[in-house]
Amino acid sequence: MFDENLIEAARVSKAWPFQEAMKLVKRYPDGKPGGAPVLFETGYGPSGLPHIGTFQEVLRTTLVRRAYEIVGAKDGKPAPTRLVAFSDDMDGLRKVPDNVPNHALLAANLGKPLTRIPDPFNAGFESFAHHNNAMLRSFLDRFGFDYEFVSASERYNSGAFDDALRNVLRHYDAIMDIMLPTLREERRRTYSPVLPVSPVSGVVLQVPVKVVDAEAGVIRFEDEDGSVVEQSALGGMSKMQWKVDWAMRWHALGVDYEMCGKDLTDSLTHSTRIVKVLGGQRPEGLIYELFLDEKGEKISKSKGNGLTIEEWLTYGTEESLAFYIYREPKSAKQLHVGVIPRAVDEYWQFRAKIPEQPLEQQLGNPAWHLLRANGYQGGDGDELPVTYGLLLNLAGVLGADAKEENLADYLRQYLGDFEGNHDLHRLIKTAIAYNRDFVAPTLHRRAPDPNEAEALQALDLYLTSVPAGASAEDLQTQIYEIGKRGEFGFDNLRDWFRALYETLLGSSQGPRMGSFIALYGIANTRRLIAEALAR
């Protein structure tokens, strides 16, 4: 049950999941007819393995789904919803993917439906698509998504799409009138909304088709060997061309919401026109921007310039990835390892704010939405005792040979026992990996300038008299005071802190130094200062 205050606040919230969910409230002011659940869909092409784009689409759709359950609530009861993860596994394999084994096996089966191609992984699955579908389900289960899996091949082969196919055949000419003007002349000569499966080779054919009997589902076409074939389009003997298939699926399944990337804008336009011809309605949805690499170039699987889920989770956390994906879906964002540390810390900053925020601000807090996506509401104690940035700086001074146990030992001295803090244990592991691969190889501790050396000597002198148990705030205050002293010639505090970072830590940016000293220890910090002065 939802509190009425929550429902009313959500309906006027500016947070994008609620804004998207309100589209569905306008679509169904009184709820979907008959009390049926509103259907959300995400699509997956199983010619490749699930990737970060798959994750972002399912996550964002789930966030809108959860938002709609609130804004569409009646008498406090969540609005009913379903999420379908649709696999387009009836598609013909157009080219051999680079990242799978047994290229020769796949090359010998080019053009066939993905569910009728042997599994190149030899993992005991019925087909290439069955293997990749299993990977998809495992992938989605890993992140706790609530969904129903639907296979295109199962729908086509079982006859569940037969009525929808007949509908396409009835409106064949009208669909051709929509599609032909969008195609080049050469493609027009071979285009058909219906792609027959060759009875000889089993290949999904890209050939002109004549509708013989729409009600019976009979079509005529020329096979690869030049013979004229007249056969049923039903029962898995054909599939729809992509844009027609998308529209047909919306109508046949009753899809109410589906988002897509900017690269499918044209497809969305054409499928919208086609679904109207079929007697259906386009789902509500969001067109999101695509990720860019660190050079600002479009990510391409063939170039290999993207970032995989596994790479992100080596150096960050699932929550930080979800946080990065949540924000500004209509803006292009660079996706590379350099964005991970900030995403980790910003997620925890937002999460820590939830208990103290009024309801309206909670609803605009990304962490609130991400926690609710997996059924957790947040609460007191949802914060880390140290930042990820601080962990990285500590790992950096420990050097390339830093180990998890070393980092954990320093934290125990500072925090006491934290064995029950699983989030902190995860971040220690990822911080060690990030330091090893990206921080340690780039660190260079420079020698201080004369004025910087004098300021470091003043800091060292202060540290000799620091009382036991001095707080990070007290240390930070004194560091500020040293930087403000005119005798050291700093134009501003930023120059002082840059000097500390570059001479003690070996980087141009760093943590709150008071927190770092409290964590690293007075004696160890004095050793860093002595090494810097010796340079």
Describe the structure.
The protein has 535 residues and is mainly alpha-helical. It has four domains: 4-176 and 239-288, 3-Layer(aba) Sandwich (Rossmann fold), CATH 3.40.50.620; 291-373, no CATH class; 388-442; 450-534, Arc Repressor Mutant, subunit A. It has 24 helices and twelve strands. The protein has helices at residues 4-12, 16-27, 52-71, 103-107, 128-142, 152-158, 162-170, 172-179, 185-188, 242-253, 265-277, 309-315, 318-326, 340-353, 359-362, 366-373, 388-398, 404-415, 422-439, 450-464, 472-484, 493-505, 513-520, 522-534, and strands spanning 38-44, 81-87, 148-151, 194-196, 209-213, 218-222, 228-232, 238-240, 260-261, 287-288, 291-292, 333-334. The strands form five sheets. A three-stranded parallel sheet has the order 1-2-3. The longest helix has 20 residues, at 52-71. The model has no long low-confidence stretch (mean pLDDT 93).
CATH topology annotation of the largest domain: Rossmann fold
CATH class category of the largest domain: Alpha Beta
Measured as a percent range, the helix fraction is 40-55%
**Structural class of the helices, strands and pairings?**
mainly alpha
Q: How many domains is the backbone divided into?
A: 4
Question: What is the strand arrangement across the widest sheet?
Answer: 1-2-3
Low-confidence stretches: none
Extended strand count: 12
For the CA atoms, what is the radius of gyration?
A: 29 Å
Count of DSSP H/I helices: 24
CATH architecture of the largest domain: 3-Layer(aba) Sandwich
The N- and C-terminal alpha carbons lie at a distance of 65 Å
- Biggest pleated sheet: 3 strands, parallel
Binned strand content: 5-15%
The average pLDDT value, as a whole number, equals 93
Shape: elongated
The CATH superfamily of the largest domain is known as HUPs
